[in-house]
Amino acid sequence: MEISIHGDREFDDIPSLKSKALRINLNQNIYGTFAEIGAGQETARQFFRAGGASGTIAKAMSAYDKDFSDAIYGIEDDRRYVTESRLRKMLSHEMSLMEERITRDKNPDKIFFAYANTVATIDFAKQFKGHGWVGIKYQVEAEGDYNEIILHIRFKETDARLQQETLGVLGTNLIYGAFYKYNEPKKLLRYLYDHLDKDQLEIDTINFSGPVFKNVDNRLMSLQLVKNGMTDAVVFGPDGNNVLPARIFYKKNILALRGSFRPVTKVNMAMYKKSYEMFIKENKVDADKTVVVFEITLSNLRAEGKIDEQDFIDRADLLCALGQSVMISNFQEYYKVVEYFSNYTKARMGLAMGVSNLIDIFDEKYYRHISGGILEAFGKLFFKDLKVYLYPMFDPKTGELINSENLKVYPRMKELYKFFKYNGKVNDIKDYDENIMNIFSREVLKMIDNGETGWEGMLPDGTADLIKDYRLFGYTRRPLKPLTLRRRANNNTKKK
Asked: Which of 111, 142, 338, 411 has the fewest CB within 10 Å, making it most exposed?
């Protein structure tokens, strides 16, 4: 029998939408409000149709008119309606009304919830497929503190009616999971796709907060989105919080550095600084409209065939401590990274890399799965306004300095390489430090594993102390400090 995205359940074991909604409706203590803007009232409809909704639904509303919406929830600073800020205002407003209108003396055992979504479905020209914010604010015990699950979605279907129905399914799965799977957030995340296909919907951001999620690290939940194939990439900022990719990349110049960063070394930071200096000197590149992101591919997170989550957090902690934004993706080929960025911007893009990475780009074996082979991939890669910034290396056998002028690609690729090289697509980083060019992350990690000394000087200032103080990458030679470096996204121990 075919197995679904859920991994631990077969299709026959997935509860129907009606049974999910009915279980909520028949729970005499669950009581709340539905507020939906932009795609009908498809989630509330599931609960009305299941039966017994009068004991669950306090109110279902849809403030479609912008003036009515502003009058109820207030005006956003950017005058937009499909935003996280709007969703949070909707949840807070509806929950306040619940507490104001449903008295505790008559309803001592009620646990309140407010479900909301604000979405834009596909436009008439079918150029913009649509997206939205979906969330729930809720209690798990009467008069308890509130918890929140907030996520951002992108529609993939090309019909507005189908998108509305998809939203109704997602909303039902979210409400059901919030109440009955909150103690298993990874399963809750997978079960959002019950009765849905990944070709219908993408979830590219999710955040859990509140007392029942106090031990949830939202970065790990973001990792699950990529791991489960729910999205191609996720991003989190220097503060460790998940960031909507569109928010950070929209209409920006983007400079990306790919690596394992296990751990981040002086070479990585030198490559970043020098490529950035060159990038912002390019025509049409404004430093104020430029974003730098350190990208780690899913394959780089795998250890012995599986993803080591602790190792992922260790890498993320160090990069965030250095003030960097981090992107986790499932893109093995560079052209897919560029295609992804192109969804958000038409501005100039840059890729900073070492010589070995550039040689791999010109290896045909990575493109055999594409009908057009390497030519199709390169058309996608270099057709965009893209430049590569190449950090040189010393040949380990001869000691010769290798850069774009003398690197050796596979013989069949020589002319193709020359074409891109002499059309200004590949640029050497000339202001390099020869004293650090023999530093490699894998050697540093090996030294840490073996309990050796001397690796500290290979890392950016302060990084070695963080590794020692917080036992990153298996370092165990010092007692663990009582305060942990781990950041809990959204400060989720606080009451919303």
From this structure: 411
